[in-house]
Each structure stands twice: as structure tokens, then as C-alpha cells.
Sequence to fold (445 residues):
Amino acid sequence: MSAATHIAIVGGGASGVILTAHLLRSNYPGLRVTLIEKRDAFGQGMAYSTSLPDHLLNVSAMGMSAFADDPEHFWRWVHARGLTNDRTIPYYAPRSLYGIYLHELLDDLVKQESRRLRLVHDVVTSVTPTAGGVDISLAGGVSIAAHYAVLAVGHDEEPAPDQDFAMRIGSRGDMPLDPGSRVMILGTGLSMVDAWLTLEHRGHHGEVLAVSRRGLLPSPHQPSRPIRLDSADIPLGTDLSYFVRWFRDLVRTTEAAGRNWRDVVDGIRPFNQQIWQSWPVGAKSRFLQHTKAWWDIHRHRMARAIHRKLTEAVNSGRLRLIAGRIVRVAAKNGGNAVTLQRRHMQSFEEIEVQRIYDCTGIVKDVSTGSITVLRSLTDRGYARPDPLRLGLDVTPGCAVIDASGTASKRLFAVGSLTRGTFFEIDAIPDIRVQCARLARHLVSG
Fold:
């Protein structure tokens, strides 16, 4: 590390705070960290800004520490507040509580590292590589010079451009509506669960239609004993169909031995990034198109109490899961007329809904999304989308790759922006490992 090293982090949500904490573990006095966040509060982002008590973490407290080498850090924080006493009983904390944990973690760093840490509330409009580092422009008219910049902006908060008929729940356009009206949610994954819980909290009692290609609801958490696997046991780099057959055979063998499919899914988790990176682009594309929906409902599970609520809603007809695709949407009677084609059917049907919520996940192309700094970087060729348009193209070391295919020595990215390279990088257990590795690289560079 040079005599003085200044690292600017663009985005003060979970990824940005965790990276900050790992960077400041270095005792080097010449290190300076600037954390820039557009929201009023640091450590929240989209995921942890909710105040609803039913919006729970999808990982138990024992797996949510900000530090991989101190896995009980968050659990001890929860235990100190009298929220749980038995580490053997999974505790799924409200997401708002985790936001408080991250905020307090940052507060402690501010008190301890007043010389090395600076917090800035503003919107980053552009990042420009220079001969000696990067120049960061803010909406407020200020410019910040740093040696390195790390993009930690998280998910795009706006719907994809081709779904301008829909909105994110809780967005500025999500005004009060008739509680008895019918609404539609695009997607049936965990984001849909959050949206449905929000509607329930508001007192909405009209029919809710959740639409996805397969209409599958995520599975509930249950106790599991992950099977033991070594990388040599896993058919890395094989054809996708072969891999899927291997995986299904492993599940059948495990269940025949009296165990659970969760034991297989959890046992393979440490190798998920390695598996993804061993596939060529074509195999990754086929996985996203044909297999991801099945994988998601088993891999990304929800707390059992929330699963019971959703199951009751489906059984009572308040929530209807539909496997199909949206053909078109037109304005009608102050709402929307949705033309829908159900899975395995040739015919079309029209359904009128008052509002449509987008819970389909991330914008597929960051170069056309609503995050200004990302559009600026891709427009000027300093960055490019990954081949599958899941995020930015980055190296396994998180360096941003420009339009010519050259990896930057000054610009990096962490978290969901790096899904194209890592795929499994949305959960805290994966993000904290990524941040620890990048922090070690930056402070030793």
C-alpha cells in the first residue's frame, strides 16, 4: 500500500457497510475510506429499509454476521438484546433489525475511525478513471478524488424499461388503492412474498394474482444436515443436462437414506460459485431459462411462519398463483387489462387488475437501468454488462471490465452487480466473503 490510499465506496447499503468494516480492519494509518450513500440512512438499501415485522431475513441469525471469520457476531448482537437465547433454534430476525445492526456497526466505526472514515450523503452521477485513480462526481456538484472506487449500488429500484406498466411496491407511484381491488404481482419468488405481506399489512383484502412462468412458491426452511461434498465429487464443467441428472440422482440417493433434499442443496452451497464459473455462457443461459425457477424455490427458502401465511392465503383464494406469461397490457377502466397466456395453453385470456407490481428481480441490463452511475460508465465504455446482462462484467477478483475487455486496476464492484461472474452473491454469507477478499486485495495493493 502507498503512503496514503483513499478508497471510495459508491453505495452505503449492506454491501458497502460490510466492505467498509473489512477495510477498516487494516491498521494501516494511511488508509482513508469514503462511503457514499443516496439514502438518508446507511446500512439499509432496498432490503433492510422495510419496517414491517413480517419481512423476515431468509437466513437465520447464526448465518448473518458481517464477518465470515466471526460467524456469531450478529447472533451475539441479537442475544444481547434479549431476542433469542438458544442458538440451536433458528431465529429469523426482521429485516429492519438487521438494518439497525448494520447501522450500529457503522456508527461504531465512525467513533473509532474518525480520521480514516468519511460518510457522504449524495448521489454519484459518474466515476471517471484517471492516471492516478478515479474522479467521482456527485449530484450536489462536488467531486471526490480517490485511488480506488468500489461500486456497491445494489439492485435497481425501478422496473425494467419493458415493464413500465408495473411499479415496485413502496415506490413513489404506489399510491393508496381500493383495498378490495384485484392486483397482480409479476413474479412468485421471495420478492412477491414481500409484496404480498406489504399488501396484507395495509389491509388489502382483494384478490392478488401472482404470475410467473411456472407459478412456483418458495419452499420453507426446515432443519437440515448438509451432506459432505468435496469439489472432486462435483461434475464441474460438464454439460448442464448431465449436471442436472447428477444432482437429481444425489437427491434421490439422499432421500432414500432417510434424509432431506435440503441436505443436498445446503451441502452443495459452498461450491455454487465454482459450479457457475465452470459452465460456458451457453450452459449458463440454458440454466437461467429452464432450470433457475426450480433451483430458486429450493435454494431461496422462507421462514416457516411466513410460508404458513402464504399457504393459508393460497388455500383461501386470497392469493392465486398463475403459471404463464404476460402477452400485453393496456389501460382499461382506470386500471389495466392484462392479456395472459397460461403455461402449456395456446389460448389467451384477459384479466382486469387495478395495479401491477413488478417483483421479477433485477433489471436485466444495467446499461439501460435507472442507476445513473452505471449508465454513465457503460455509455463511456469504462464498464460493460456481463454476457448474460445480469450485472456488470467483472473478473473473479471483482475488477470491472471495460468495453474493450480490459480489467480495471482502479474500479471494482461487489454484491448483486457481480451476479454474472458469481451468480450466488445476493446473500450476506456470500457478500461478506467477497468483501473480505476485495478488502485484502485493496489494502495490500
The longest strand covers residues 319-332.
